[in-house]
Amino acid sequence: MKALFDSSSLKCSKLVTRTYSTSFSLGIRLFAPKIRPAIYAIYGFVRYADEIVDSFHNYDQEELLTEFIQEYKRSLKRKISLNPIINSFQAVVHEFGLHEYADIFLERMQYDLEISEYTTKEAYENYIYGSADVVGLMCLRVFVDNDNEKFNSLQSSARYLGSAFQKVNFLRDIKQDMENLGRSYFPNVHHKKLTDEVKKEIIVDIEQDFGKAYQGLIQLPIESRLGVYIAYKYYSKLLKKLKHTESEKLMNARIHISNPMKMLILAKGYVRYKLNVI
Question: 115-278: which CATH topology?
Protein backbone atom coordinates (compact mmCIF):
# COMPACT_ATOMS: atom_id res chain seq x y z
CA MET A 1 0.00 0.00 0.00
CA LYS A 2 1.24 3.47 -0.93
CA ALA A 3 -0.01 4.89 2.39
CA LEU A 4 2.18 2.43 4.30
CA PHE A 5 5.19 3.34 2.17
CA ASP A 6 4.56 7.06 2.73
CA SER A 7 4.25 6.48 6.46
CA SER A 8 7.54 4.59 6.60
CA SER A 9 9.18 7.33 4.50
CA LEU A 10 8.13 9.96 7.02
CA LYS A 11 9.55 7.85 9.82
CA CYS A 12 12.88 7.88 7.97
CA SER A 13 12.79 11.68 7.72
CA LYS A 14 12.02 11.87 11.42
CA LEU A 15 14.93 9.54 12.20
CA VAL A 16 17.30 11.66 10.11
CA THR A 17 16.21 14.79 11.97
CA ARG A 18 16.71 13.24 15.39
CA THR A 19 20.05 11.71 14.39
CA TYR A 20 21.59 14.89 12.98
CA SER A 21 20.11 17.60 15.20
CA THR A 22 18.90 17.13 18.76
CA SER A 23 18.14 20.85 19.02
CA PHE A 24 16.07 21.04 15.83
CA SER A 25 14.21 17.80 16.58
CA LEU A 26 13.35 19.17 20.02
CA GLY A 27 11.89 22.27 18.39
CA ILE A 28 9.79 20.17 16.03
CA ARG A 29 8.34 18.22 18.94
CA LEU A 30 7.01 21.52 20.26
CA PHE A 31 4.96 22.05 17.10
CA ALA A 32 1.36 20.93 16.84
CA PRO A 33 1.23 17.27 15.71
CA LYS A 34 -0.42 18.14 12.40
CA ILE A 35 2.57 20.18 11.14
CA ARG A 36 5.42 17.99 12.42
CA PRO A 37 5.50 15.50 9.50
CA ALA A 38 6.00 18.21 6.87
CA ILE A 39 8.80 19.85 8.85
CA TYR A 40 10.52 16.49 9.36
CA ALA A 41 10.29 15.94 5.60
CA ILE A 42 11.81 19.34 4.84
CA TYR A 43 14.64 18.90 7.32
CA GLY A 44 15.47 15.37 6.15
CA PHE A 45 15.76 16.51 2.56
CA VAL A 46 17.92 19.58 3.17
CA ARG A 47 20.06 17.65 5.66
CA TYR A 48 20.88 14.92 3.15
CA ALA A 49 21.70 17.42 0.40
CA ASP A 50 23.95 19.30 2.80
CA GLU A 51 25.65 16.07 3.90
CA ILE A 52 26.56 15.26 0.32
CA VAL A 53 28.49 18.49 -0.16
CA ASP A 54 29.93 18.69 3.36
CA SER A 55 30.80 15.15 4.43
CA PHE A 56 31.25 12.62 1.64
CA HIS A 57 34.80 13.61 0.73
CA ASN A 58 35.91 10.09 -0.23
CA TYR A 59 33.20 9.86 -2.86
CA ASP A 60 32.37 11.71 -6.05
CA GLN A 61 30.28 14.43 -4.41
CA GLU A 62 29.30 16.08 -7.67
CA GLU A 63 27.98 12.78 -9.03
CA LEU A 64 26.10 12.03 -5.81
CA LEU A 65 24.48 15.47 -5.72
CA THR A 66 23.54 15.25 -9.40
CA GLU A 67 21.89 11.88 -8.85
CA PHE A 68 20.09 13.20 -5.76
CA ILE A 69 18.72 16.16 -7.72
CA GLN A 70 17.74 14.00 -10.68
CA GLU A 71 15.84 11.60 -8.43
CA TYR A 72 14.08 14.54 -6.80
CA LYS A 73 13.07 15.89 -10.22
CA ARG A 74 11.74 12.48 -11.25
CA SER A 75 9.79 12.22 -8.02
CA LEU A 76 7.95 15.44 -8.78
CA LYS A 77 6.61 13.95 -11.99
CA ARG A 78 5.93 10.48 -10.60
CA LYS A 79 4.79 11.68 -7.14
CA ILE A 80 6.83 8.86 -5.65
CA SER A 81 10.46 7.97 -5.03
CA LEU A 82 12.02 4.80 -3.68
CA ASN A 83 14.36 7.09 -1.75
CA PRO A 84 12.22 7.59 1.39
CA ILE A 85 13.69 11.01 2.20
CA ILE A 86 12.90 12.31 -1.27
CA ASN A 87 9.52 10.60 -1.26
CA SER A 88 8.48 12.43 1.90
CA PHE A 89 9.75 15.75 0.61
CA GLN A 90 8.14 15.62 -2.83
CA ALA A 91 4.73 15.16 -1.21
CA VAL A 92 5.27 18.28 0.89
CA VAL A 93 6.52 20.22 -2.15
CA HIS A 94 3.30 19.41 -4.00
CA GLU A 95 1.05 20.13 -1.03
CA PHE A 96 2.56 23.51 -0.16
CA GLY A 97 3.89 24.67 -3.52
CA LEU A 98 7.57 24.66 -2.56
CA HIS A 99 8.99 23.99 -6.04
CA GLU A 100 10.78 27.31 -6.47
CA TYR A 101 12.33 27.28 -3.00
CA ALA A 102 13.56 23.71 -3.38
CA ASP A 103 15.18 24.51 -6.74
CA ILE A 104 16.97 27.53 -5.28
CA PHE A 105 18.19 25.50 -2.32
CA LEU A 106 19.60 22.72 -4.52
CA GLU A 107 21.34 25.30 -6.70
CA ARG A 108 23.13 26.70 -3.64
CA MET A 109 24.21 23.21 -2.62
CA GLN A 110 25.89 22.98 -6.01
CA TYR A 111 27.69 26.23 -5.17
CA ASP A 112 29.39 24.44 -2.26
CA LEU A 113 31.10 22.15 -4.75
CA GLU A 114 32.16 25.03 -7.00
CA ILE A 115 32.80 28.10 -4.83
CA SER A 116 35.20 28.14 -1.89
CA GLU A 117 35.20 31.84 -1.00
CA TYR A 118 32.56 34.57 -0.99
CA THR A 119 34.44 37.80 -1.48
CA THR A 120 31.53 40.25 -1.80
CA LYS A 121 28.54 41.00 0.41
CA GLU A 122 26.21 40.44 -2.53
CA ALA A 123 27.55 36.92 -3.16
CA TYR A 124 27.44 36.15 0.57
CA GLU A 125 23.82 37.27 0.95
CA ASN A 126 22.83 35.46 -2.25
CA TYR A 127 24.22 32.22 -0.86
CA ILE A 128 22.49 32.68 2.49
CA TYR A 129 19.16 33.35 0.78
CA GLY A 130 19.34 30.08 -1.12
CA SER A 131 20.82 27.93 1.62
CA ALA A 132 18.87 29.21 4.63
CA ASP A 133 16.20 31.82 3.90
CA VAL A 134 14.30 29.57 1.50
CA VAL A 135 14.26 26.79 4.10
CA GLY A 136 12.63 29.23 6.50
CA LEU A 137 10.13 30.16 3.79
CA MET A 138 9.32 26.50 3.16
CA CYS A 139 8.63 26.01 6.86
CA LEU A 140 6.54 29.19 6.94
CA ARG A 141 4.34 27.83 4.16
CA VAL A 142 3.61 24.87 6.40
CA PHE A 143 3.11 27.00 9.51
CA VAL A 144 0.45 29.19 7.85
CA ASP A 145 -1.11 26.23 6.02
CA ASN A 146 -0.82 27.92 2.61
CA ASP A 147 -2.59 31.10 3.74
CA ASN A 148 -1.13 33.58 1.24
CA GLU A 149 -2.04 36.67 3.24
CA LYS A 150 -0.32 35.39 6.38
CA PHE A 151 2.64 34.14 4.39
CA ASN A 152 3.18 37.49 2.68
CA SER A 153 3.00 39.37 5.97
CA LEU A 154 5.54 37.07 7.68
CA GLN A 155 7.96 36.10 4.92
CA SER A 156 10.36 38.97 5.56
CA SER A 157 10.73 37.96 9.22
CA ALA A 158 11.15 34.31 8.22
CA ARG A 159 14.01 35.30 5.96
CA TYR A 160 15.70 37.32 8.69
CA LEU A 161 15.44 34.36 11.05
CA GLY A 162 16.84 31.96 8.47
CA SER A 163 19.72 34.35 7.82
CA ALA A 164 20.43 34.74 11.54
CA PHE A 165 20.53 30.99 12.10
CA GLN A 166 22.83 30.45 9.14
CA LYS A 167 25.21 33.25 10.10
CA VAL A 168 25.46 31.91 13.65
CA ASN A 169 26.29 28.50 12.20
CA PHE A 170 28.95 30.03 9.95
CA LEU A 171 30.55 31.84 12.88
CA ARG A 172 30.43 28.80 15.15
CA ASP A 173 31.84 26.52 12.43
CA ILE A 174 34.35 28.98 10.97
CA LYS A 175 37.37 26.84 11.89
CA GLN A 176 35.88 23.64 10.46
CA ASP A 177 34.64 25.33 7.29
CA MET A 178 38.04 26.84 6.55
CA GLU A 179 40.28 23.94 7.54
CA ASN A 180 38.19 20.89 6.62
CA LEU A 181 36.04 22.20 3.77
CA GLY A 182 38.27 24.97 2.44
CA ARG A 183 35.39 27.44 2.51
CA SER A 184 35.18 31.04 3.66
CA TYR A 185 31.64 32.44 3.76
CA PHE A 186 32.21 35.83 5.40
CA PRO A 187 33.46 38.31 2.77
CA ASN A 188 35.42 40.32 5.36
CA VAL A 189 37.41 37.35 6.72
CA HIS A 190 40.70 37.01 4.88
CA HIS A 191 43.67 34.63 5.02
CA LYS A 192 41.98 32.43 7.63
CA LYS A 193 42.11 35.23 10.18
CA LEU A 194 39.18 36.58 12.17
CA THR A 195 39.97 39.95 13.72
CA ASP A 196 38.08 41.39 16.71
CA GLU A 197 36.82 44.24 14.52
CA VAL A 198 35.44 41.92 11.86
CA LYS A 199 33.90 39.63 14.47
CA LYS A 200 32.13 42.62 16.00
CA GLU A 201 30.72 43.60 12.58
CA ILE A 202 29.43 40.04 12.08
CA ILE A 203 27.82 39.94 15.52
CA VAL A 204 26.07 43.30 15.03
CA ASP A 205 24.71 42.13 11.67
CA ILE A 206 23.31 38.93 13.22
CA GLU A 207 21.80 40.80 16.16
CA GLN A 208 19.96 43.05 13.71
CA ASP A 209 18.60 40.00 11.88
CA PHE A 210 17.36 38.52 15.15
CA GLY A 211 15.67 41.78 16.10
CA LYS A 212 13.78 41.98 12.82
CA ALA A 213 12.90 38.27 12.93
CA TYR A 214 11.31 38.52 16.37
CA GLN A 215 8.58 40.87 15.13
CA GLY A 216 7.29 38.13 12.86
CA LEU A 217 7.94 35.27 15.28
CA ILE A 218 5.40 36.59 17.78
CA GLN A 219 2.79 36.68 15.01
CA LEU A 220 3.20 33.03 14.02
CA PRO A 221 0.20 30.72 14.38
CA ILE A 222 -0.05 29.18 17.83
CA GLU A 223 0.69 25.71 16.39
CA SER A 224 4.29 26.67 15.54
CA ARG A 225 5.14 29.65 17.73
CA LEU A 226 6.65 27.82 20.71
CA GLY A 227 8.95 25.62 18.62
CA VAL A 228 10.27 28.56 16.61
CA TYR A 229 10.65 30.64 19.78
CA ILE A 230 12.77 27.95 21.47
CA ALA A 231 15.00 27.73 18.39
CA TYR A 232 15.27 31.53 18.42
CA LYS A 233 16.30 31.54 22.09
CA TYR A 234 18.78 28.72 21.59
CA TYR A 235 20.53 30.48 18.71
CA SER A 236 20.40 33.81 20.55
CA LYS A 237 22.16 32.17 23.50
CA LEU A 238 24.74 30.66 21.16
CA LEU A 239 25.32 34.05 19.56
CA LYS A 240 25.83 35.61 22.98
CA LYS A 241 28.40 32.96 23.81
CA LEU A 242 30.19 33.55 20.51
CA LYS A 243 30.13 37.28 21.20
CA HIS A 244 31.98 36.81 24.47
CA THR A 245 34.52 34.36 23.04
CA GLU A 246 37.83 35.75 21.84
CA SER A 247 38.29 35.76 18.08
CA GLU A 248 41.44 33.67 18.32
CA LYS A 249 39.58 30.99 20.27
CA LEU A 250 36.80 30.86 17.67
CA MET A 251 39.45 30.00 15.10
CA ASN A 252 40.65 27.10 17.23
CA ALA A 253 37.55 25.62 18.85
CA ARG A 254 33.87 24.97 18.18
CA ILE A 255 31.59 26.71 20.66
CA HIS A 256 28.41 24.94 21.74
CA ILE A 257 25.55 25.10 24.24
CA SER A 258 25.54 22.43 26.95
CA ASN A 259 22.56 20.08 27.31
CA PRO A 260 21.64 21.46 30.78
CA MET A 261 21.56 24.96 29.28
CA LYS A 262 19.36 23.71 26.44
CA MET A 263 16.93 22.31 28.99
CA LEU A 264 16.95 25.61 30.87
CA ILE A 265 16.20 27.52 27.64
CA LEU A 266 13.32 25.11 26.98
CA ALA A 267 11.89 25.47 30.48
CA LYS A 268 12.06 29.27 30.48
CA GLY A 269 10.63 29.46 26.99
CA TYR A 270 7.74 27.18 27.86
CA VAL A 271 6.86 29.26 30.92
CA ARG A 272 6.87 32.47 28.87
CA TYR A 273 4.74 30.76 26.22
CA LYS A 274 2.17 29.63 28.80
CA LEU A 275 2.08 33.13 30.28
CA ASN A 276 1.59 34.52 26.75
CA VAL A 277 4.59 36.85 27.05
CA ILE A 278 6.40 35.97 23.82
Answer: Farnesyl Diphosphate Synthase (1.10.600)
pLDDT in tens, 225-270: 999 999 999 999 999 999 999 998 998 888 989 989 999 999 999 8
Q: Give the integer Cα–Cα distance in Å for 94 and 90.
A: 6
Which range (62-71, 206-215, 259-268) has the least confidence?
259-268
Q: Domain locations in the chain?
A: 1-113, 115-278
What's at 129, amino acid-wise?
Y
Phi/psi of residue 275, each to 5°? Answer: -85, 0
Contacts of 81 (CB under 8 A, 6+ apart): 71, 72, 74, 75, 87, 90
Across 40-56, b (16+ Cβ under 10 Å) vs e yields: bbbbbbbbbbbebbbee
1-113 with 115-278: one CATH topology?
Answer: yes
Question: Per CATH, which fold does 1-113 belong to?
Answer: Farnesyl Diphosphate Synthase (1.10.600)
